[in-house]
Write a structure and sequence with these properties.
The protein is an all-alpha fold and about 190 residues long. It has seven helices and no strands.
């Protein structure tokens, strides 16, 4: 009976995390489209009408950082983040596994610490109504809140990633279907 309650709880948490990460992924895609439109309008305005604003460049710069953090969890969940395997691929598979699990735990700890500090900064920015030092000032807190949401999504994704990695230890070390570091890519998460 208890296992059923836990299974239901984890099912709800997984669905909520999936929905949150997918929503942030779609938000990041929308921001990228907005950035492309903003740059296009700026280029047309400058070329056709001889009019240019600094706001487009400054806003796109701020949005670029937001997209990076907002899309971080989705990229990590899909296994499409960049991995440098030049040294790792030369190590024995057991050592690769230990390093990979350790790295995941370190990323989780680092993300938690970073979340604490960025959440404090975002809250202070919101309370003090902080504005940018750009040529055309705009509020900074929405960008800081976006970073906090991206880090929160990453923290929600990492425990499942670590659990999957620990559960699939044998297939990781045996290296079935190619490189052990890339085996788990498709197994990590499924959309339900």
């Amino acid at each position: 009976m208890k296992s059923t309650k836990w299974q239901r709880l984890f099912s709800v948490l997984r669905a909520g995390t999936n929905g949150f990460v997918i929503s942030l992924e779609q938000l990041a895609a929308g921001i990228l489209v907005f950035m492309a439109l903003l740059i296009t309008v700026e280029a047309i305005g400058r070329t056709v009408f001889g009019f240019s604003t600094r706001l487009a460049y400054e806003l796109v710069g701020a949005l670029t950082g937001c997209v990076g953090f907002i899309g971080l969890a989705a990229t990590f969940r899909k296994g499409s983040h960049i991995r440098i395997l030049a040294i790792m691929s030369r190590l024995p598979k057991k050592i690769q596994y230990v390093i990979d699990v350790s790295a995941h735990f370190l990323v989780l700890i680092y993300a938690c610490v970073l979340l604490r500090y960025t959440a404090t900064m975002a809250l202070n920015s919101l309370v003090e109504n902080e504005i940018s030092w750009a040529a055309i000032p705009f509020p900074v807190y929405p960008f800081k809140i976006a970073i906090v949401l991206g880090l929160l999504a990453l923290i929600l994704v990492l425990p499942k990633q670590i659990y999957t990695l620990i559960r699939s230890r044998r297939s990781y070390i045996e290296g079935e279907n190619g490189s052990s570091l890339n085996n788990l890519k498709g197994q990590q998460w499924t959309h339900r």
